[in-house]
Amino acid sequence: MKHFVTKDKQSISQFALGTMNLPLDDREELSEIIRLAFESCINYFDTADLYQYGKNEAVIGSILFDYGQFFEYNIGTKVGNEFDAALREKIKWNPSAEYIKHAVSQSKLRLSRDVIDLLMLHGGTVHDNMDETIREFESLKRKGDIKSYGISTTRKNVIDYYTENSDISVLMAPLNIIDNRSEEYLSDDYVFLARGPLMQGLLTENYDVALKTKFKHGYMGYSQDELREIILMIKEYGYPLEAIAYKYLMNKNVVIVQGVSTVSQLKKNLRHYETAKTIRDEVIEDICSKVEKKHYKEHRDPKTVTHQEDNDKKNVLKKLRKKISQP
Question: Basic and acidic residues bias: where (predicted)?
Answer without folding.
Answer: 298-315
